[in-house]
Specification:
Blueprint lengths: L3 E5 L12 H14 L3 E4 L11 H15 L5 E4 L5 H14 L3 E5 L8 H14 L4 E5 L1 H4 L5 H7 L5 E6 L4 H11 L4 E4 L2 H9 L4 E4 L6 H12 L3 H17 L7 H9 L19 H11 L2
Length: about 290
């Protein structure tokens, strides 16, 4: 069971949008040194929506090979086509990913029955640990807790990333199926409280730019050290907000660029951070001390 800070890693790119493999290697080394528990590769923050299948699989393979067993890799393999999700999950399993993260099918807006059958099909097709991912603010579909509980009974489903930001829903999941699957936060502002309530970790955007602080926060929250965890959470609060001033990963990629860790590259239809937000992101980085 993976616990702690799982970074939702950006995919570094050159100005032309091609993957910057040297920068990706630097980021992986940064997280190996910072105490990050696992790498979340090619999820939403990794711009999975605009990587082609070959690139998607190459990034997963690169992360697995470079970390070389020193840190687990959770590979984003979700899609709004069930067959594509199976194909990506098979490729990630073959590459050696420790687990796969499967987002709810976006745009086509399946019913709760359709969501169950979609994830069951992937579960039945690929023998690799699978983490569900519910982020209705981006997908236009919301998987109910009742559906999650049904899915938690399947052999390969081991967790869920709850990115609803609704703490009460996350706590309900912990109470109803937290013994059978791990409940992870996918919302940095509420992650501490979810972990204090029994969540197993945080799949974090903020960990890209504050890896050590997020690792410490998760460790303290998992240990029930509320006062110490709150001190770090207060430092990170402005950053958690600033990294969503525009659509993720626009702000976090710009923040990493400002810190000299990656270039400015990002793929259309996303664009670089609007100048009116620059000062706010820099202030938040300075407040956090990163």
């Amino acid at each position: 069971m993976i616990t702690g800070s799982i970074v939702a890693l950006v995919t570094p790119m050159y100005a032309d949008g091609s993957v910057d493999w040297e920068a990706l290697e630097r980021l992986l080394d940064l997280h190996l040194e910072a105490g990050t528990a696992a790498i979340g590769a090619v999820g939403t923050t990794g711009e999975s929506a605009t990587l082609n299948v070959s690139e998607h699989c190459e990034v997963i393979k690169f992360c697995v090979e470079h970390t070389a067993g020193r840190m687990p890799v959770v590979a984003g393999t979700g899609a709004n086509s069930t067959w594509e999700a199976i194909e990506l999950t098979e490729a990630a399993a073959a590459a050696g990913a420790a687990a796969c993260l499967l987002v709810t099918p976006y745009y086509n807006r399946p019913t709760q029955r359709g969501l169950y059958e979609h994830f069951k099909a992937v579960n039945d097709a690929v023998a690799v640990p699978q983490i569900l991912y519910n982020v209705p603010g981006r997908t236009a579909v919301d998987m109910s807790n009742d559906t999650v509980i049904r899915l938690s009974e399947l052999d390969n489903i081991v967790g869920i990333k709850d990115a609803t930001g609704d703490l009460a829903r996350g706590v309900d999941l912990i109470q109803r199926c937290g013994q059978s699957i791990a409940i992870y936060s996918g919302d940095d502002p509420t992650a501490m409280e979810l972990m204090l309530a029994g969540g197993m970790g945080n799949i974090s955007v903020t960990a890209n730019v504050a890896p050590s602080l997020m690792a410490q926060l998760c460790a303290l929250a998992l240990a029930g050290e509320r006062v110490k965890a709150e001190a770090i959470n207060t430092r990170l609060a402005p950053l958690n907000k600033a990294l969503f001033l525009e659509s993720n990963p626009i702000p976090v990629k710009w923040a990493l660029y400002q810190r000299g860790l990656i270039g400015e590259g990002i793929r259309l239809p996303l664009t670089t951070l609007d100048e009116r937000y620059h000062a706010q992101v820099i202030d938040a980085l300075d407040t956090a001390g990163v």
